[in-house]
Specification:
alpha+beta, globular, 6 strands, Conserved Hypothetical Protein Mth637, Chain: A, about 140 residues, six-stranded mixed sheet
Length: about 140
């Protein structure tokens, strides 16, 4: 007769199927916002998507030149607890003629590398309109 030990029951359990849980609403929402971009800006319907390289603690708030697939944006606020990003959103809201609520930080709230979505911008700074016209996709909503 064989001897059974308490751990034997665990050794002979069938393996569980490798089932991934359904993505949460946040994950599904983020996945639906992914946009392949050839430059620092692109339209997604009526929403302008911008890849930003932020510079906190600058002398003045300014939209700079493109650097690779990012647009340089400098702000005077210090990089403390996301305050520079909040200040950047307020600054860009004025530049694009929208409310701060119309600008969504997709990623990079606590990082210099950011992606912003600006819903129905009223104005386009010249560096952005120039890039969009080069891409032949300038369609102001």
């Amino acid at each position: 007769m064989g001897t059974t030990f308490p751990g034997d029951a665990l050794k002979h359990k069938p393996a569980k199927a490798n089932v991934k849980p359904a993505p949460s609403n946040v994950e599904a929402k983020a996945a639906s916002k992914k946009l392949v971009m050839k430059s620092f800006c692109a339209w997604d319907g009526e929403t302008l998507v911008l890849n930003i390289l932020g510079t906190p603690s600058a002398k003045q708030d300014a939209i700079g030149k493109p650097k690779g697939n990012q647009l340089k944006v400098s702000v005077t606020a210090a990089p403390v607890a996301g305050r520079a990003t909040d200040h950047m959103v307020k600054f860009l809201a004025g530049e694009f003629g929208v409310a701060t609520k119309a600008i969504e930080v997709v990623f990079g709230r606590m990082n210099v590398n950011k992606q912003l979505r600006i819903h129905s911008p009223k104005n386009l700074p010249s560096v952005i309109s120039k890039q969009l016209s080069q891409d032949n996709v300038i369609n102001l909503p």
